[in-house]
Each structure stands twice: as C-alpha cells, then as structure tokens.
Design goal:
two-stranded antiparallel ribbon, 5-stranded antiparallel sheet, 7 strands, 16 helices
C-alpha cells in the first residue's frame, strides 16, 4: 500500500531508480564528450550498464550505493568536461591557452559533488584524491602550474565544507574520521586477511558484479555469467587489437611524444579510477568480509566506456574478424545483455520475492490445528498447516504452508518462531521471521483474509 512505511519504501526505491537514470545519462554524456564523432560507443556503454542485472537490482533497492555511484559518475563527467573545455588553440610557442575564467565555477561545482559523494560513502574520499590528481594532470598538460594550486583550492574547500563536519563527528565519536573501525567491529572484528586470501575471494566479487541478488543468497543460472564473460572477453580482445595497432603507429614517434603520451590522453587517466576503487576495496576486504560487486560500481563509468571502446575495436582495428561494429556486433551484444537482465527479473527475482497469496478457503489437503491454538489473542489466527515434505533426514529441507487469518487490523507486524521437534521433543529445526518472510507482514493483511504462507526450514545436520 502507498501509505505508512511501505509508501516510504516505494518512494525511496523510486529515488534509487532515478539515481540510476542519472548515472546512465552521465555515462552517455561522458562518452559523447570523449568521442564527439561517435554515437555507437556512448550508446553501447550506456546499454551495457542499463542491461547489467546487478545494476538493475541495486537501483530497485534502498541503499546509499546508488547515490555514491551517481555522484562519482557525475564528478567524472565534470572532470572530462573540464579537460575538454580547458583545451584551446596553442600559442606560437606551442602552449595551450585555456580560458581559466570559465573553469572557476565548474571547479567549485565539482567540489560540491565530491563533498556530497563523501557524505554518501567513503568512496567519496578517494574521489577527492583522484579529482585533485586529474586536475594536476590538466595543469601539467598546459604547463600552467598555478592552475594546479588554484584548482586544488577551489575543489577541496567546497568538499571539506560539505563533508568535513561528518569527519569531525566521526573522530569525536569513534576516534576514526572515516568511521571504518566501528563498522568493522560490528561486522565481527578485523579478520586480518592477507592479499592472497583476499584475491582468493575474487570469484564472488566478479559474480556479484554481474548478478547476485538478495543478500548473497539468490543467483541466476550459469549461462547469465557466461554471456557477460563473453562480452568482457570481446571487449578485452578488441582493446588489445587497438592497443597493438596504436603502438605500431607510435613506434616512429619521438621520445618527447612518448613521455607526454599519458598527460594528453584523458581515457588513460580515467582508467586509474577503477584501479583506485578496487585498491580501496581490497584494503577493506583485508579487514572484513566485503567481496561484493556493488562496491565496485562507483567506477562504472570508466568501466562501461572502456568496454564500449574495446568492443568498437573489432570494427576499427580488426574489421575482417566480425565486420562492422555498428551493424553486426553492437546490436547482438546489446540484445544479449538485455536478455540476461529480463530473464533475471522475470524468472529469478520475481518468483523469489513473490508474496504469499490470499486464498478464499483453506484447502482440504491442509490439516486444521486444535481449536485452542487458533486464536492466540494477537489479532491473527493459525487455522491449519500443510506439510509438503513427508520424509526428511538430517540436513534436508522441510517445506510447509501455514494458513493464517487476520481477525482485526494490526498496528505492528508480529514476529513468529517456527520450530520442528524430533525424538524426545528435541528441537531439530528453527526459523525466526515475519510472515511472508517479511514480504507480506500481518499488519498489511486485509481483515478476514486467509493467507497461505509457505516456508522452508532445514533440519539440523547433527
């Protein structure tokens, strides 16, 4: 219902979806800024993100991840625009003459974006360091060293004004300005993992970057992952083909051009952002369990743009292999990505999150409970149970359906504990939950309605 806390949940999920739309627009604008001559590559980068199952699931949830993903993408677009807008025809000495007056408001706006990102998550702190480095490269490119100091001040001051109060508060409350230490303590303490142990969790990190739903408890079929691994493989091979071709073309270039290659390629600088995000995640994973792909999505913009550039390499650098990128490869890749997302929505997520149904009467196959157990004075009544599992051994799953009736409207959702007993009334299974596994709590039931609430509980292996 669109009232009370369910209405708040609906609105926050809509807000997450709008943030996802903002991220997609940032990716498209970033692609158009980098490749003004191309329409296919920006669209491909946007499609790969829009059709990524994990991106869709996350942006239908209530989480601060969606906000930091959008703000990081927005900041990267601002940096790309600053790179292009500061370029101008060179003077007779060969130096560029950028219009610095126009850059000041944009730098302040960038600082506000970075500050908001830092309020959302600690990835915003990394974003501040990255932005300062990006702007320093612009200054080095233009041989304008005063710009580096000016840009650092115009970005850092707004960012600190926006987020600094939180850092001070964290330091006062926890003795840690990032509040990472209390988070790790709540999660079970520093596990002291080595780099090798963290890298051993890469399978889960990669899989959850594509599609792992719920709280790491709902996975699609393996073919969904293979489709995305295939797309990634095509992008890597296409990128390598273009890199080898570019290297051959530069083999006759001067040493000076080699040394200045990096600072004249914004794409290479953008590639550093995913590396920074991954390095920060690795350090976090050394201390606590956090191998979740959603934590890499603040770097989705350069990853998507890089993937689109690599896929386009089949048309630019290896046209004889798969033919025209625009006409052959791009539609197939986008369609394959879309199929995975629609499949996950309709046949993986939807069945798992379907709420229990309202039935007219309890079926004959169900066993009515004793009359004295029907009304417990809680506003709901347990009418009967239907055991779907007749025989179970240790470790097996027992499935059953409980039939409840709402006798009167409830203000609060009641909890319940389901226990199975074996020989000598020893407890052999236990589950503590809300009705409908939290999907349809009893305070939302219509009065007089019968709810068929199905559960699965595992018998103790011992």
């Amino acid at each position: 219902p669109w009232q009370g806390y369910p209405a708040a949940a609906h609105l926050l999920r809509v807000f997450s979806t709008l943030l996802g739309l903002g991220t997609l627009l940032c990716i498209y604008v970033g692609g158009r800024s980098l490749w003004p001559e191309s329409r296919t590559r920006p669209l491909m980068a946007t499609a790969l993100t829009a059709f990524l199952p994990q991106f869709n699931f996350l942006h239908a949830s209530i989480t601060n991840d969606t906000l930091v993903i959008f703000l990081c993408s927005l900041a990267l677009v601002q940096l790309i625009r600053l790179w292009g807008e500061n370029e101008s025809p060179p003077d007779p000495a060969g130096r560029s003459r950028p219009d610095r007056a126009r850059a000041a408001p944009r730098l302040i706006l960038l600082g506000l974006t970075v500050g908001l990102a830092a309020l959302s998550k600690n990835a915003g702190v990394l974003l501040l360091l990255y932005s300062l480095g990006f702007l320093a490269v612009i200054g080095l490119r233009d041989r304008d060293y005063r710009f580096i100091l000016r840009a650092a001040a115009l970005v850092t001051v707004p960012a600190v004004l926006v987020a600094g109060w939180l850092w001070v508060r964290n330091q006062q409350l926890y003795g840690d300005w990032t509040a990472t230490a209390p988070f790790i303590a709540i999660a079970g303490g520093d596990r002291g993992y080595s780099l090798g142990q963290v890298l051993a969790e890469s399978d889960g990190l990669i899989a959850s970057s594509v599609a792992v739903f719920g709280w790491f408890n709902l996975r699609p079929p393996d073919w969904v992952y293979w489709v995305w691994f295939g797309i990634a493989g095509l992008a890597v091979v296409g990128a390598l083909a273009c890199a080898l071709r570019a290297r051959r073309q530069r083999s006759t270039a001067s040493i000076d051009s080699h040394s200045s290659f990096v600072i004249h390629r914004p794409s290479l600088i953008l590639a550093l952002w995913p590396l920074m995000v991954y390095a920060g995640l690795v350090m976090f994973m050394m201390q606590t369990e956090a191998a979740q792909g959603r934590l890499l999505l603040p770097a989705i913009l350069p990853i998507a743009l890089g993937s689109a550039w690599g896929l386009a390499g089949w048309g630019r650098c290896a046209p004889g292999a798969l033919g025209s990128f625009n006409r052959r490869l791009a539609p197939l890749v986008a369609l394959a990505a879309l199929v995975t997302s629609v499949y996950c929505l309709m046949l993986v997520i939807r069945p798992a999150y379907r709420p229990p149904p309202v039935v007219a009467v309890m079926p004959d196959s169900a066993t009515a409970v004793l009359p004295e157990l029907v009304d417990r004075g809680l506003g709901i009544s347990l009418l009967g149970a239907e055991m779907e599992t007749e025989t179970a051994r240790p470790g097996d799953i027992v499935r059953l359906t409980l039939y409840w009736r709402a006798d009167e409207p409830l203000n609060e959702p009641p909890e319940f504990v389901l226990e199975l007993f074996g020989r000598e009334t020893k407890r052999i299974a236990n589950m503590h939950s809300y009705h409908g596994r939290g999907l349809f709590p009893a305070n939302l039931w219509p009065a007089g309605a019968i709810i068929a609430d199905s559960f699965a509980v595992r018998v103790d292996p011992d």
